[in-house]
Amino acid sequence: MTTETSLSPLALEPSWLPVCTVEDLPRERGACALVHGSQVALFRTFDDTVYAVQQLDPYSGAHVMSRGIVGTRGGTPTVASPMYKQVFDLRTGQCLDPVGKDPRHLLAYAVHVADDVVSVGPPVEPGQALLPDAVERGTG
Amino acid sequence: MVQPPSPRELVVVGGGMVARRLVDALRSRDTAGEWAVTLLCEEPRAPYDRVALTSYFTGRDPDDLALGGQEIWDDPLVTLRRGVAATAIDREARTIATSDGRTLPYDSLVLATGSYAAVPPVPGRDLRGAFVYRTIDDVAALRAYVENLRDEVGRPLRGAVVGGGLLGLEAAGALTALQVETTVVEFASRLMPLQVDDGGGEALRRLIEALGVKVRTSTATSKIVGLLGRVSKMEFADGPGLDVDVVVFAVGVRPRDELAREAGLEVGERGGVVVDDSCATADPAVWAVGEVACIGGRTLGLVAPGYTMAEIVADRLLGGEGTFPGADLSTKLKLLGVDVASFGDAFAAEAGGLEVVISDPVAGVYKKLVMSDDARTLRGGILVGDASAYAALRPMVGRELGGDPAAYLLPEGAAPAAAGDLPDDAAVCSCNNVTAGAIRCSVTDAGCTDLAGVKACTRAGTSCGSCLPLVKRLVTTELERSGVEVSNALCEHFELSRAQLFDVVRVQGLTTFSEIIGRHGNGRGCDICKPVIGSILASLGTGHILEGERATLQDTNDHVMANLQKDGSYSVVPRIPGGEITPERLIVIGEVAKDFGLYTKITGGQRIDLFGARIEQLPKIWKRLVDAGFESGHAYGKSLRTVKSCVGSTWCRYGVQDSVGLAIALELRYRGLRSPHKIKLGVSGCARECAEARGKDVGVIATDNGWNLYVGGNGGFTPRHAELLAEDLDTEMLVRTIDRFLMYYVRTADRLQRTAVWVEDHEGGLDAIRDVVLEDSLGIGADLDEAMAGHVEGYEDEWAAALNDPEKLRRFGSFVNAPDQPDDSLAYVNERGQARPATESERAGGSLLIAGTTLEVRR
Lengths: 140, 859
Hints:
heterodimer, A: mainly beta, Rieske Iron-sulfur Protein, 1 helix, 10 strands, 39% strand, globular, disordered N terminus, disordered C terminus, B: alpha/beta, FAD/NAD(P)-binding domain, five-stranded parallel beta sheet, 24 helices, 29% helix
């Protein structure tokens, strides 16, 4: 587990919300957090990186993404919707396998881990590539 | 993508299959949102699968006839107006008047009004008990009439179908399914005069008469005689009359072109809106598609050319240049269980044709190929009784067959596989107009690697499915040809197949995913390989499925030991072995359901499903059930589900063995056994088979001397009857044989492969499996026995185990930062006294919502 030594300036902004510790998240599974009234799915991958995407599954309309199976496609960390098995890139929310449907993407949220506390930030603008944590740590 | 400020208005009149296809085609191509579509659908329901209408009689719900992808109606650019008919077209003003008194403007208008069932002008056609056969409502009215009348008169009913064509035989099948003694009356000299020749008609008559349906050909109905306003007798131009209680007219369809006529559009000599090969009428804003269109001087009553027309209009509306290529009138049907196919120049109308005929009245088969004069090129054919060669032959029409044509008419299995040589432009799927080339391309260029991928990519085989065997062969051939050995790799993380992986894990004694993927795979797995390994480890008895890292392998159902439902809530099914339950326990289930506000439904497996549980409620529900002596029913697992039983010799007058006792023993023996797919068992106490055991993976039927054992049955998408594995077994031998059969299946089947397909794919088929489990031909009998003994001994209730482990219970919080706060996205409405998930529009309305389960009222 990588530990950051200093708080990112972003984490001081009011839109950031501490939601749990890394240990609260089971490794290679997801959990849902309430962030300013929105449901956000958090995932802790094998290398202890934490990702956050919307909990709403765009294909079924149910709030279930955190219950999907975590894995990899190539080197990309992924989650598969537990409902109809579409696969998404955890870093960007991009749909990697729409299972025969039109691709629909997930909103990805910025995540910051400091002193073992996981904070969720604002949604990442589509196209704004990777989250800082994911870039620094890669996916192992 | 920029959407034009106001899309142009397209009005589609008609709500049939072709109208639906037009909407699908337009919406999938019109990515810029150029058109807003309004569909006027006279029937009170969305377009449905009219071709499958007769299946309504085999117990299906009208909803089962729904065409796939209902989310199209949620598209903001699509408006479906059910129960609204168009009453007049004003071409000048470009408006259309509707039956609910509105006037809709259009920029383009598509007539897809279809046909109505023709009724011949015979006296008495208006009597009660005379029906047509066209819509769900027709079929429902027919069924209600038959059932009520039978109750009233208290004797079996007699019925007649006027018309021995395709629709008439469908209707005869429907009457037969309603246990009506049926006569088919056909004016022509043979059945299905438009599709088959005299030889085929004769074969068809024999096959149908063998099913108890009487056939009168060359017979003209002259009058229907009524009694008290009700059908009672038919009279004919020649021959004796016929006493009947119900008459179905199925003499053909007529295009519903009245709107077009009144609007001054040209109609064909025999009806139908005249269109050119782009489906356009003389008015550039009006199009016609499907059965109402008169194209090339004729109307076409099949769905495939209708779909083609729909695609053409969608293309043209977006500026395309598509034209109608001419209709392929080939048909393949199963009527009353009899295969009939007709394709190409079936009647050898073209000069100089040679006919190759095989007629076997004993086997009930008639097959004819029409060849060119040099006997090389296939022109058409007729297949009655066995149409298995249809998929391979139809795409070959107009091409050299290669080899002896007669070889194609030999029984199934003996026919050569033509698929490999099929030319690229040969149409393989005529419903969706997919060529062999397109299928090959989806493999070579689009990178599809299996049948499912090719179906999604090309839509081949997604409508009627009759071409699927051919599609599969093409895909396999193409994969092999492109050098990819047809891989049996599980997924990108494992090169091994499930069976190989099972052996490796078992022999090397591996117990964790990290070890397994570290030694035999790469990456960190996915939703394909993780559940497979979770299942393998569980089958090998490595302990609780949620222990340590194993929890990460489970699909959500196994992960929370309940069944995920469409809204994200779960359902809970306690085990009720053999379907036997005491009143006290029944009351407990009722009380739990009441206290948690759960929707309850009896399942097909003789137990009770409790729906609408939120994730944080699951442990509380289990606690109540476990305290009352229940355990997990494993409804969520790829594992043993239930052992269904009839009441057996204990109570039944006819029972010869104690089927309930055996079912309970078997269910307790195999409960919790993880397997490649779900497993269902059934036990019937006598040959009447009330437990429907032959529809199960393992079916046991009592005989006077013991038990007969059947294997490889299933319901579902491709229903199959189990086949006899062994006869007259005593109970001990029966159990040992089932032990070995199941364990052998668990070890060697593919991922998500049910027993039916496993048996079929097993080298040597059922005979070879019989050798393994009864004769121990592989010498693994003792090993299989030991493995099953280990399973039985190691069984523990997963729910109780989780309740006793705080670490496992942690995962059942709703939110990691608010574990007890209910998910407020769940919303329910009351229906028939119980909660059900609210629909999108009910949610939007807001005020309809009630506290369905124990959720707070949302306002």
